[in-house]
Amino acid sequence: xxxxxxxxxxxxxxxxxxxxxxxxxxxxxxxxxxxxxxxxxxxxxxxxxxxxxxxxxxxxxxxxxxxxxxxxxxxxxxxxxxxxxxxxxxxxxxxxxxxxxxxxxxxxxxxxxxxxxxxxxxxxxxxxxxxxxxxxxxxxxxxxxxxxxxxxxxxxxxxxxxxxxxxxxxxxxxxxxxxxxxxxxxxxxxxxxxxxxxxxxxxxxxxxxxxxxxxxxxxxxxxxxxxxxxxxxxxxxxxxxxxxxxxxxxxxxxxxxxxxxxxxxxxxxxxxxxxxxxxxxxxxxxxxxxxxxxxxxxxxxxxxxxxxxxxxxxxxxxxxxxxxxxxxxxxxxxxxxxxxxxxxxxxxxxxxxxxxxxxxxxxxxxxxxxxxxxxxxxxxxxxxxxxxxxxxxxxxxxxxxxxxxxxxxxxxxxxxxxx
Length: 419
Ligand code: FAD
Hints:
23% helix
């Protein structure tokens, strides 16, 4: 079939969906292309929602990935504010909530992830928030500004970013975490300790090793406290639940696609149905630089990489080189950047000094640097990230010394490309 005769539907107009539509055109796809999104908004960036968007008066338009004129000029049809309710993989059609049925030759799923719910008594009270999309942020903004004290359930990146933004607005913050440290699932103990101290130093109360068993109301349907498992009640005027996200894979499951903590895709972002691709937060994908191990990554770099993989596969363009998973987070004056997966770590080299607020943790497995966690060293991080794609012998003393440039051959003694 000629390219011009093919129809691609993209379901989910977020970071991955918006990017894949643009990249398909960039890579020369000339057929019909429709982007369907349940939010009534052009594709936008989510990272600022917990950062600048929450604490300053950034206008909503500033979040857009691209202006509306881009989609018009690129011939990308938009069906925004319309959810897909079903996929018929045999007939190659999707149903929209409004009743329309659209046909496809290729379907790209990019439905993202949804907030994990805390199912405890009182979870339906007013004043409880989650933060996944712009509408959530619009509700949270005034709540943070008008509260004397907010409680945050979950000390992951989103929870801690909200804590930092709330402190910037002068709101009191208490964070409750079930694990024994903040960022327990996503950061090394050293980085967790540093970040935790930073928050405490800015007045955030952090309670670890304790879970929330209920939200207590004020008798008028509004939250007034968290009930903790150890018997304490933590007073608050509003609460934010940030306990992780689950893949939006219900459509994919009902269409019979193989799913396991997200839709299973290959290195070209193809699902188990050859006509259906899936990209972004909703996928479980192989990591070429980690022996093909599967992971579900919730990050902008992952969404962009998989968008390129799918667009390249569909248009017959050369596949993009495999990337190291990486992530960033901004909290107060901290620019945190993490790259690589931290398994099999047997040694950590601290480059620079945490006391100065500028340092990096190089985690090694044997001879190889497998993960880097960087604090306020954004320029170095770009180089550090590339080191993870190579096997190198390093001089630990030289690496620990921030005065030795990261690119210096005093640090890296020999190397061989991994891929
Ligand atoms: P999304 O961007 O979530 O888009 C999915 C879209 O699909 C949504 O608009 C949804 O409404 C739509 N959709 C779902 N189901 C349907 C349906 N049935 N029909 C039609 N449309 C549907 N990442 C970083 O790398 N760095 C950060 O600092 C960072 N900070 C973040 C802060 C916050 C508050 C949040 C929420 C996320 C943050 N992330 C960050 C994660 C990053 O934003 C996501 O990894 C990225 O948006 C994933 O892109 P996606 O397209 O897969 O999903």
